[in-house]
Write a structure and sequence with these properties.
binds zinc ion
């Protein structure tokens, strides 16, 4: 059964076959969460289309960070309305906790949007 675009993106699958993992280890593995496969283990497409490709992913990561801090700020204001330094402390703590996910999703989203790799229905099973 073919994976949907959004499900494959959320699971960090290769954009061409939607089956092979982009990353080698789990995001919970804090010493190796950033290790990416050079090629897809299922279809063999290169997951780094050109050298330095993922430098642009930091703009996606910045967007994710700003969106998360905005959501955290609104939630804290509605639930508790703490002092300014509590906003800052909680925002920094949450962003450090989700840093592995932010790193991975910024690369996944960047590859899906700008990698030029299209889904190939030959890999459907
Ligand atoms: Zn693949």
């Amino acid at each position: 059964m073919p994976e949907s675009y959004s499900k494959a993106l959320l699971q960090g699958k290769c954009p061409q076959c939607r089956k092979g993992n982009m990353f080698t280890y789990s995001p919970a593995n804090l010493s190796r969460f950033m290790v990416m496969n050079e090629t897809c283990p299922h279809c063999g497409v290169r997951l780094e289309p050109e050298p330095g490709f993922y430098q642009g992913a930091m703009y996606v990561g910045y967007g994710i960070t700003v969106a998360c801090i905005a959501v955290i700020g609104v939630l804290l204001y509605l639930l508790w309305d703490p002092s300014e330094w509590t906003y800052v402390g909680i925002s920094i703590a949450v962003m450090l906790l989700i840093a592995p996910l932010n790193y991975r999703y910024s690369r996944i989203i960047y590859l899906y949007l700008f990698g030029g790799i299209k889904y190939d229905s030959r890999y459907r099973d």
